[in-house]
């Protein structure tokens, strides 16, 4: 079993909980996105998915808001990549 496969069960509940919180929201502050991304980042092994989260974290420094549907689409890509 690879590190990514071992990590997946941990990521799914975190991402699922975040997606549930997004339900019904139009936008989310960049600070809230940053907090959630840091939680995800901490559970990821080195690799492409972790690098993608790092890029997204850097992006949050220049933004104020994220559309909930944008976050949801990005989280779907993260799940598909692990």
Summarize the SSE layout with pairings.
Elements: H1 3-22, E1 27-29, H2 30-42, H3 48-60, E2 65-67, H4 68-81
Antiparallel strand pairs: 1-2
Helix pairs in contact: 1-4, 2-3
What would you note in describing this structure?
With 82 residues, this protein is mainly alpha-helical. It contains four helices and two strands, in the order αβααβα. The protein has a two-stranded antiparallel ribbon with strand order 1-2.
Compact description:
With 82 residues, the protein is mainly alpha-helical.
Structural class: mainly alpha
Uncertain stretches of 5 or more adjacent residues = 1-7
- Tally of DSSP helical segments: 4
Approximate strand percentage: 5-15%
How would you state the average pLDDT, rounded? 88
Q: What overall form do the CA principal axes indicate?
A: globular
Strand adjacency order, main sheet: 1-2
- SSE string, helices as H and strands as E: HEHHEH
Number of separate strands: 2
End-to-end C-alpha gap = 13 Å
Largest sheet properties: 2 strands, antiparallel
The quaternary structure here is single chain
Q: Report the helical percentage.
A: over 70%
Features:
two-stranded antiparallel ribbon, mainly alpha, 4 helices, disordered N terminus, single chain, 82 residues
């Amino acid at each position: 079993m690879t590190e990514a496969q071992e990590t997946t069960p941990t990521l799914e509940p975190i991402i699922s909980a975040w997606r549930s919180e997004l339900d019904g929201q139009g936008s989310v502050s960049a600070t809230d996105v940053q907090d959630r991304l840091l939680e995800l980042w901490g559970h990821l092994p080195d690799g492409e998915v972790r690098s993608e989260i790092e890029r997204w974290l850097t992006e949050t420094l220049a933004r104020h808001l994220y559309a909930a549907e944008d976050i949801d689409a990005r989280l779907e890509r993260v799940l598909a990549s692990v």
